[in-house]
Specification:
Blueprint: E1 2-10, E2 13-14, E3 17-18, H1 19-31, E4 40-47, E5 58-64, H2 67-75, H3 77-89, E6 90-102, E7 107-114
Antiparallel strand pairs: 1-5, 1-6, 2-3, 4-5, 6-7
Length: about 120
C-alpha cells in the first residue's frame, strides 16, 4: 500500500478568488478524481484550522495499490488538469510518499520525502 500526502499553502488571492474560495475549489477538483484513477484506493482532503505560521492550508491524503499506480496517477490526464489549477493558486507544496509493507510478524514502513515542484 502506497500513501501519498501533499500539503499546500495557498496565495491570499489568485485567479480572481481569495484563499478560502480557492481552497474549496482545490478540494472539489481533487475529489472529482475519485473513481477515475486506476489503483487509487482512497482520497481525502482537509483544511487547516490552526492557522499558525507553519501551517499549510490544504492537505491531500491518498492511498494507492502500488508504486506503479502512484506513477500512473502522476501523469493521468484527469490529474494533469487538476495540477494546472493548483499551480496557479499555491505558493508552497510539500509531499511525502511512503509504502507500508505488511507481513505476518511486523509492519515495515519505507518513506521518501520530496519537495517536488510539480503538483
Amino acid at each position: 500500500m502506497i500513501k501519498h500526502i501533499v500539503m499546500w499553502r495557498l496565495k491570499e488571492q489568485a485567479m480572481g478568488s481569495g484563499k478560502r474560495e480557492n481552497a474549496q475549489r482545490v478540494r472539489e477538483k481533487l475529489e472529482s478524481m475519485r473513481g477515475k484513477i486506476p489503483g487509487m484506493v482512497k482520497i481525502e482532503l482537509g483544511f487547516d484550522f490552526s492557522a499558525t505560521p507553519d501551517s499549510s492550508d490544504v492537505v491531500l491524503y491518498s492511498e494507492f495499490e502500488s508504486r506503479e499506480a502512484l506513477e500512473g496517477y502522476m501523469t493521468h490526464p484527469v490529474h494533469e488538469a487538476v495540477k494546472d489549477f493548483i499551480r496557479e493558486v499555491r505558493t508552497e507544496r510539500h509531499v511525502v510518499d511512503y509504502e507500508v509493507v505488511r507481513d505476518e510478524s511486523k509492519v515495515r514502513i519505507h518513506y521518501q520525502v520530496s519537495t517536488r515542484r510539480d503538483v
